Automatic annotation (TrEMBL), chain A:
GO biological process: aerobic respiration
Membrane topology recorded in Swiss-Prot or TrEMBL: Multi-pass membrane protein
TM ranges: 20-40, 52-77, 98-118, 138-160, 180-204, 224-247, 259-277, 289-313, 341-361, 381-401, 413-434, 469-492, 523-544
Keywords of the record: Electron transport, Heme, Iron, Membrane, Metal-binding, Respiratory chain, Transmembrane, Transmembrane helix, Transport
Coiled coil: none
UniProt GO cellular component terms: membrane
Keyword Iron recorded: yes
Family recorded in the similarity comment: Belongs to the heme-copper respiratory oxidase family.
Protein name (Swiss-Prot/TrEMBL): Cytochrome c oxidase subunit 1
Residue ranges occupied by any Cytochrome oxidase subunit I profile domain in the UniProt entry: 13-518
GO molecular function, one term: heme binding
Keyword Acyltransferase: no
From TrEMBL, chain B:
Record PROSITE patterns: COX2, COX2_CUA
Sequence segments annotated as region (Disordered): 242-283
Keyword Glycoprotein part of the UniProt annotation: no
Acidic residues: compositionally biased ranges: 254-264, 272-283
Name of the protein in question: Cytochrome c oxidase subunit 2
Location of the Cytochrome oxidase subunit II copper A binding domain: 55-167
Pfam families: COX2
Amino acid sequence: MRNTFVDAYPDQARFIRRVFATSFTAFAVGAFFGLIQALHRTDILRVVESPTYYTVLTGHGVFLVLSFTIFFLVGVYQWAVTDSLERRPVDMRFTWGWYGLMVLGTLLAAFAILAGFVESIDVSANTLFTFYAPLQGHPIFYVGLVLFVVGTWLAGADWFRSWLAWKGEHPGERIPLPTFMVLTTMIMWYISSIGVAVAILAFILPWSLGIVDSINPTLTRTLFWYFGHPVVYFWLLPAYLLWYILLPKLSGGRLFSDPLARVVFILFILLSTPVGIHHQYLDPGIAEGFKFIVMTNTMFLLLPSFLTAFTVVASMEHGARQRGGTGYVGWLRALPWREPAFTGMALAGLVFAFGGFTGIVNAGMNINYLVHNSLWVPGHIHTQVGTASALTFMAGSYWLVPQLTGNRLVGRSIGLVQVLLWFIGIVFMTNSMYRGGLVGIPRRTAEPQYEGFQYEVAAGSVGELNAQLAIGGILLFISAMLFLALMLLTLFNRDSEPVDNRTIPAPLSGPEDSPAVLDNLKLWAAIAAVLVLLAYTIPLASIVTRGGLFGPDIGPFPVTIEGSGSIELVRMGLEFALETVSR
Amino acid sequence: MRIHTYEKLWLVAALVLIVGFIATITYGSVGLGISMIDDSEETLSPDEINDDERFGEPRVEQVGENEYEAYVVAQTFIFQPDPIEVPANSRVTFYVTSRDVIHGFAVVGTNTNTMVIPGEVSTLTVEFDEPDEYGIVCNEYCGDFHHTMEGQLTVVPEAEFDMTELEAEADDEVELGDETTVTATVENGALNDLETTATFEIGDQTVEEDVTVAGQDTEELAFTVDSTELGEGDHDWTVTVDDHEESGTLTVVEDLEGEDETGADTDGANGTDEDAEAGDTDA
Ligand code: HEM
Ligand SMILES: [Cu+2]
Ligand SMILES: [Cu+2]
């Protein structure tokens, strides 16, 4: 008998399909914006005027790293909780409710951003996804972000509720691993997203509405990064979940160690938040000592990723040997390389390992001077969230979407081409970005071609770097479109049968091999909270003492595009400059 | 908890690696002295910049034998001063603040790089051994024309670097038979005394005067002109000190009708400074 996820939980499958559709829509728009950027920066094709580039870039950031990734996360987590607890949510209306809230938030933020393209609408939010004050976007943008985050909080509450209900029915049992991963991720998320909530609700939103008229830029920036580092794990942990839960099965085996997986997720609860200041190594107003503490914390945060690398590779090897693989490295050949779901995840893992090393460079306090805010950083971003997460999500979808639709995946071999294209595209694009960053090409710049100087590229030329960036960007875009096409075709591929069933084999070493204290979520949450207080109380107090809660009389700088074309913009720019000089 | 032997080995190796990274970076900070941008500077509100002793007039100042300080203001979408001129074989501390939004200050192709946050002052100390030219970019998005925000940093040969400034003032018109005075002000921005000669020329006359300006001080020189010797008409004059030159025109007239004795506007606006000074950046 057919036993897919949709057979067991049709209403859940319907829900998750809807969530994925939202995620993939954001992905489509974001990828298109990425293409525009890649061609614009390199001066190959400029379809927008340079000031409008920043509207595109804000959209790229928000749609990809907030909408695409986080909607995908809630979809996968809904699947993981349902499937591993073998129960539906306590109240499905609540589930639709938080999804609705997240969609509403996204639409409001998207409206504020996209209105930047339309001159006749007096709304814009060209603040980029980091919205550093005193740059100011339209209040609708901030309201949208808040609603979106509140939606994710409620999603977490929903999963905790399911778990509590399950616990009542299964007294004394260990939390199933996928649910454990979901709950620990959410604990991390609750602790960390408070930062951005406070930044917006207490400071930025009232200031954008004109209720308070000044702001402390270092404070809101620090609160943003308090959230900004853990959020990268929020993008990454659903990928980890798929690597731990799905990849072993796809390799033909089972997870190597359940206890270690739990330890890894606990380490993320503990360490992901008290490190955010590593994004502020080059900020004035923060003492060197705090930066040093954060640097050491960050290095220890490598540990869970190292452990993951071990478990993932070990599980793959186990799978390969089950499939008849032999030899020291010969087993690699026995892996199912024709499966896009498997190959995509394996390539994503490979890119992630490389990107991890570039992350160590970023984290190296004093090496950071060399790369901070250079093109190196988007290089890092695209190997990590842009591939480790994004490619894993796409690969995972090749297995998940048939489970959610009951339809067979259309174009398995095209899927294989798709993941390979992404890999090649990312190698080209990030190679160019890393190298460009090292010669000093800045990120977040519509025209990194300056009048007063030339970049000194040791091997190669700026022209060659540009070509690589553009080729990479084009390949990535084609790959993204292929993926979306395959998803759409699969959705309509009725009268077909998926090849696989929904069962996930039990780990080699199960939860009974680990102490029960690992499942004491309250304990870990409490320790994490203490670590956060230790890491942040003094820096925040010092920032407030220096700059005041609402800052030293710093007014807003709305980043709005008005009037017609560039002349108007030049005029505004000049007026703006003159005004500030004469003040 | 049961952990596989290989897993244990891996765990230990990972921890050793992590501690190794931390040790390397600590060595970079302590051993090599690459310190971080920090909170050592007092805060400075953007609306106090104009009245600030350091940032009111963005410039480069000498503070020691080979030590300089550069006070830099970033604002949409320029840096002041621009270009920033420093001598080779020097140690320069940059103090950078912002007048409006968050900016970046990065010397392209080097690790001189900092965030510039309104309300705060970033400090960076850099050694320049050789003459060179660098670009400066704002590497944090600061608004519509962020991509146009650049500046220049010029490291000039030590011998060519000078921090002397010259200004000259004179009447435009003088009545035939009267005397008038051309005043030259020599400012020495360097720490050491400046010993030089000022040359004043008008008509066929040349006057030379030796002058010594103490470090970070100014001297005024007065050149007296006898209009009778010049005779009626326009007379061009110049004051020269080293490579600096100021010039103007003096008109000798029959009589200054309807004007009071002090003559016309004498604010030096008729003198044109012909050389671009480092630190000469009045906006
Ligand atoms: C179609 C594929 C993509 C292309 C061609 C592309 C291209 C680019 C380019 C050229 C930049 C640099 C912009 C600049 O600094 O001026 C950029 C920035 C960025 N990209 Fe992508 N990208 C793609 C996919 C992704 C994906 C899948 C993600 C994440 C899930 C992502 C996340 C980001 C982020 C977070 C930034 C930095 C935004 C900022 O600085 O505010 N990109 N992208
Ligand atoms: Cu981080
Ligand atoms: Cu800028």
